[in-house]
Amino acid sequence: RRSWAEDKCRKAKAAADAVAADDTTTTMTNILSDDGQDDDGIGPQAILLSSMSTDPAKNQRDSLMVLPSLKFLWEIYRAVLDILRSNSKLEHVYHAAAVGALKFCRTYQRRTEFRRLCDMLRMHLGNLQKYGDDSGSKSSNKVRGWEGWSTDAIELHLQTRFAQLETASVLHLYTEGFRTVEDIYNILQISHQRRKRDPTLPPPKAKLMAKYYEQLTTLFWVSENH
Predict the structure, then answer these.
(1) For the whole prediction, is pTM greater than 0.90?
(2) In angstroms, rounded to a whole number, what is the distance separating the alpha carbons of residues 161 and 98?
(3) How far apart are the first and last CA of the chain?
(4) 74 closest CA partner among 6, 170, 138, 149
(5) Helical (H) or strand (E) element with 185
(6) Distances in Å between the alpha carbon of 51 and those of 42, 48, 91?
(7) 3 state SS of 54
(8) 50 confidence band (pLDDT: 50, 70, 90)
(9) Are 146 and 128 in contact, with CB atoms under 8 Å apart?
(10) Any idea what the Cα angle at residue 14 is, between residues 13 and 17, rounded to 5°?
């Protein structure tokens, strides 16, 4: 169902872009046929039009053609994440949906949905920290379906937050980016506490942490917070 909804969004966006391209070509043709052209056949109106970045007609088309599909896809992501938020057996599916939702926000520039997604993921993480027993004991676990923190679970949470951090930089939502850094720190603390109890447990992979520090450097640089 999610793949079908994603394909529907892509087709709706392509259709809207095709209509926008046809309208732009028609408008430019009409303007070039008017008076005021220079020696190259391009008048001042055409130059002005080409420099305009806002198109009310395009916004209206996007609302009519693309927005319904985007809302439908967003609701699918939200429902999947809410259902699988504490299911250890399907945590790979949960994180794949989270990364897909982040890609959705990045591709379609959905800043509002990105903020909501960050809040949702943060709430899920907070519940696992507060109510989920990290010793792996099912008997003392207060979250149904959650089997405790494992090395794989920590790595999946880190990978999802790294994708979240990258999306925050792309969308220029630096406040969410720094809040994501706090989430990553909390996950690393979980890993640290587990290794204190059992020194044989491996730390997060060096390659994974190198990617994190690279993204962190990018965040500080683009936000001019350095």
Answers:
(1) no
(2) 9
(3) 44
(4) 6
(5) helix 174-197
(6) 13, 5, 47
(7) coil
(8) very low
(9) yes
(10) 85
CA angle at 48 for the pair 47 and 54, rounded to the nearest 5° = 125
Instruction: Give residue for tokens 């999947």.
Output: 80
Q: In one letter, which amino acid is 102?
A: L
Report angle CA 133, 134, 136 to the nearest 5 degrees.
85
- Token pair 């936000």 is at which residue? 223
Span 160-204, pLDDT tens digits = 999 999 999 999 999 999 999 999 999 999 999 989 988 888 888
pLDDT in the model for residue 52: 46
Contact 190, 129 (CB under 8 A): yes
Q: How far apart are CA 103 and CA 110, in angstroms?
A: 10
Helix (H/G/I), strand (E/B), else coil: 148: coil
pLDDT tens per residue, range 92-121: 999 999 999 999 999 999 999 999 999 999
Q: Hey, what are 191's tokens?
A: 């890993």
Report whether 70 contacts 108 (CB < 8 A): yes
Q: Residue 186 is encoded by which pair of tokens? A: 């909390």
Q: Positive or negative, the Cα torsion across 152, 154, 156, 158?
A: negative
- Go through 106-126 and write b for each residue having 16 or more CB atoms within 10 A of its CB, e for each that does not: bebebeebbbebbebbbebbe
Determine the Cα–Cα distance for residues 148 and 138; give it in Å rounded to an integer: 8
Tokens of 10: 């892509």
